[in-house]
Every structure is written in structure tokens, then in C-alpha cells.
């Protein structure tokens, strides 16, 4: 009798423990970048009040630090229950190839996601028809940000091409603006490079580059490096010490006129800095990229062998849901990955991005994982660093070509 009671008590404990549950999610969205994710966590807690959520973050823009920590956890056999990774080659070329991720086909089926996510996006997160992560958003990388009142005071407008940018840069320098453009640490320089290259080559050649049809050593690409060098001559000299948020701050306070950054900057301006679109901050497609939308998407996957699989699946379901995406994206500066999102919840910037997403030519971002395998990406930062100090376009192009061959992008 006593034994039966003990057994019943033990079972009761087990049941309540599993009903209580835990969930660890892993990302680089902390501090200034945290509010959108926190809104999603709040929704999760409301739905699953007994589950304790460990919102583990490793700060550092573009995931530079988080990806390194994730690697040690994945290889050490202690994966988080779900983690952030960019849609595309970043996840597919690493943890998917290594057999560490769960195939999410049945989840996509049960949630009807094949029908609500754009076909090309589903293709980007899939191999052989199997999806590996759930996209929570679509970000645009090729945006030039400015402070409308400051531009007016200086008597300039957002330049439409890179040659026009260089002229505006000279005008501003003559007016005493020492650094018309602000850039930050290495990845933000790669981010700028991407916009300069697409704005110089055109979107079709950008696609050719990643399809192995255009070599980095082609004179067009070499010329793109040279333009990038001239653009960098308009930038601040203390770039390597600045985070993307600190660089954005310099646009708002009028130290610099322009910054090329993804539209998480819109989230930062509107959500964190409480600035109004069009008056507190302004935007335009990066020079030369009008009618082109350079996309990237944040997504979360399910590593094999997680401790809290059910809770993680519930997390993924929420991320992919309409309610989840429309809670997250208006704060983040991105648009929903879903095609049925409620645009009335988005500000003027979000609405304009949603319109461009529908009408523009879509190409993928290099820096944010969409077009090249991580083996290329992780080494490309050094090419940019070296270029910025040497300004040797031919050498940088040759080094990039070598990386492309090694990564299997080019022959
Ligand atoms: C990107 C990411 C964005 C934002 C940004 C800055 O790679 O996709 O959501 O977090 O980095 O950290």
C-alpha cells in the first residue's frame, strides 16, 4: 500500500515536472535588439504559463559572437532547444550538412506553412524539399538611413547612385562634415560592401557571382572594390570600435549624414529610440539599388537531441504563426515572412518595405547568410579588413575568388 502511494506520488511529481517544462532559446537579440523577441516570449508564456523560458542571448550584431558560442554547444553535445540562424546557406551549409538538425516537414504540413510562406523563401530554407528552419521575418539589407532635418539643413538629398553619393560626400565635407558616412565594426563594412557591389554590378550580376557565372576577378567586380574604397574614404576613421547601434546613433545626432544598414535599424530607431518614421529618421534604397530588395530572413531550427523537444516545437509553431509574426516584426523593423500578415500593425517604414518586397527584384544577402556557405562568409571578413587597409582592389578580388573556389561557388 505504502509502495503504491509512493509510486503514485512519484508519478505525480513527474507529470507536474513535465507539464511545468523548460525551454531554452538561443539568439543574438539582446539589449537594444531585444524587444521584438521579448514580445514573442511574452506570448509564449501566456500560452504555456507553466514553462520556464530561458532566453539565452549572446550579444553582437549579425550573430558574430553568438555563432561561435553556438558551435561549441552543438559540438559539445549541449544544443539549445531552438536557435536563431539565417535562412539559407548559413544553416544548410553547416548544421544541416552535419546531420545535426531535425527535418521540419511534418511541422510545415500540420501548420499549413507551405501555403503561407512565399515559395522562394521555403526553397531557401530547404534541401531536397525538406525545410530545416522556421522563418520569423524578412529583413532588407540595402537601406540608406538619414536624419531628414539634417539633410535639409545641409541642402542635400539621399543619393541615387554611388557616383552621386561621392559627389554628395564632397559637398558635405566642404560643409565641415568630416565623415559623411558612418560605418562600424568589420561586419558592417561587409554589409556596406554588399550594397556597393550590388549598386555597381546590378542585381543580375550579383546573382551570377553566387551562381559561379561571374568571377570575383572580373574587371566589373574589381571596379566594385575600387568604388567601395572611395565610399570608405567618406567614412569615419574609428569604424572598428563601433557597433551598428552606435553607428546609427551618429546619423540621428548629425555627426554623419548616412549609414547603410539593414532595416533592424528601423526597429532600433522606432522601438528603442522612439523616433517617428519620415521625421525622426528617413530612408532610401542604398545607391544604385532602387527596385532591388536585398533580403535575408531570421529563422529558428530544431537541433537533434534537445532536452525540451515538445516545448521547442511549440516555440516554432508560435514563431511561424500570424499572431507571433505580427507581434514580433512591427517592433523589429522587419516584415512578416508570412504573406497574410496584418499590415495595419506596421509603421510607415514597414508598410513601404512590404510594398517593395512585393514589387522589387529580390536577391539574397551575403553577409546575413542567404547566398554563400559559411566557409566563404567566415573568411570574407579578413578580405575586407585587408582591403580597407591596403586599398588593393585586384588583390582583394583575387583573394575573394580563391575563397569562392574553395567554397565550391566558383571554378
Ligand atoms: C542580422 C539579423 C538581424 C539583426 C542584425 C543585427 O544578421 O538578421 O535580425 O539582428 O543582424 O544584429
TrEMBL record:
The keyword Signal applies. Its main location: other. InterPro entries: Bact_solute-bd_prot1, SBP. The keyword Signal applies. It is found in: Cell envelope. Pfam families: SBP_bac_1 (PF01547). Keywords: Signal, Transport. One of its GO terms (cellular component) is cell envelope. It comes from the Bacteria. Residues 1-19 form the signal peptide. Belongs to the bacterial solute-binding protein 1 family. Part of a binding-protein-dependent transport system for a sugar. This is Probable sugar-binding periplasmic protein. It comes from Deinococcus xianganensis.
Amino acid at each position: 500500500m505504502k509502495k503504491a502511494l509512493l509510486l503514485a506520488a512519484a508519478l505525480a511529481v513527474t507529470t507536474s515536472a513535465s507539464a511545468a517544462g523548460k525551454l531554452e532559446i538561443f539568439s543574438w537579440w539582446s539589449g537594444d535588439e531585444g524587444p521584438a523577441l521579448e514580445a514573442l516570449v511574452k506570448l509564449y508564456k501566456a500560452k504555456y504559463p507553466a514553462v520556464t523560458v530561458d532566453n539565452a542571448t549572446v550579444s553582437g550584431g549579425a550573430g558574430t559572437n553568438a555563432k561561435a558560442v553556438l558551435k561549441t554547444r552543438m559540438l559539445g553535445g549541449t544544443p539549445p532547444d531552438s536557435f536563431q540562424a539565417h535562412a539559407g546557406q548559413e544553416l544548410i551549409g553547416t548544421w544541416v550538412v552535419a546531420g545535426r538538425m531535425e527535418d521540419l516537414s511534418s511541422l510545415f504540413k500540420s501548420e499549413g506553412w507551405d501555403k503561407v510562406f512565399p515559395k522562394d523563401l521555403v526553397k531557401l530554407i530547404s534541401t531536397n524539399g525538406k525545410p530545416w528552419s522556421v522563418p520569423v521575418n524578412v529583413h532588407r539589407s540595402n537601406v540608406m538611413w538619414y536624419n531628414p532635418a539634417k539633410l535639409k539643413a545641409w541642402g542635400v538629398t539621399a543619393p541615387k547612385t554611388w557616383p552621386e553619393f561621392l559627389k554628395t560626400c564632397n559637398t558635405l565635407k566642404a560643409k565641415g562634415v568630416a565623415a559623411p558616412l558612418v560605418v562600424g565594426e568589420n561586419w558592417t563594412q561587409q554589409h556596406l560592401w554588399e550594397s556597393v557591389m550590388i549598386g555597381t554590378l546590378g542585381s543580375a550580376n550579383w546573382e551570377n557571382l553566387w551562381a559561379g557565372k561571374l568571377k570575383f576577378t572580373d574587371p566589373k567586380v574589381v571596379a566594385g572594390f575600387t568604388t567601395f574604397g572611395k565610399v570608405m574614404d567618406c567614412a569615419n576613421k574609428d569604424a572598428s570600435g563601433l557597433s551598428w547601434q552606435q553607428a546609427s546613433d551618429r546619423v540621428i545626432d548629425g555627426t554623419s549624414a548616412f549609414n547603410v544598414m539593414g532595416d533592424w535599424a528601423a526597429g532600433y530607431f522606432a522601438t528603442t529610440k522612439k523616433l517617428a518614421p519620415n521625421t525622426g529618421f528617413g530612408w532610401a534604397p542604398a545607391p544604385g539599388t532602387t527596385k532591388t530588395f536585398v533580403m535575408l530572413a531570421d529563422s529558428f531550427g530544431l537541433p537533434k537531441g534537445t532536452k525540451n523537444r515538445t516545448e521547442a516545437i511549440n516555440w516554432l509553431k508560435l514563431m511561424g504563426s500570424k499572431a507571433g509574426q505580427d507581434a514580433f516584426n512591427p517592433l523589429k523593423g522587419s516584415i512578416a515572412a508570412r504573406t497574410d500578415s496584418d499590415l495595419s500593425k506596421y509603421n510607415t517604414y514597414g508598410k513601404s518595405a512590404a510594398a517593395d518586397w512585393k514589387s522589387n527584384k529580390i536577391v539574397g544577402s551575403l553577409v546575413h547568410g542567404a547566398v554563400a556557405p559559411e566557409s566563404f562568409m567566415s573568411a570574407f571578413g579578413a578580405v575586407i579588413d585587408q582591403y580597407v587597409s591596403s586599398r588593393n582592389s585586384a588583390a582583394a578580388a583575387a583573394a575573394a575568388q580563391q575563397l569562392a573556389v574553395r567554397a565550391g561557388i566558383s571554378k
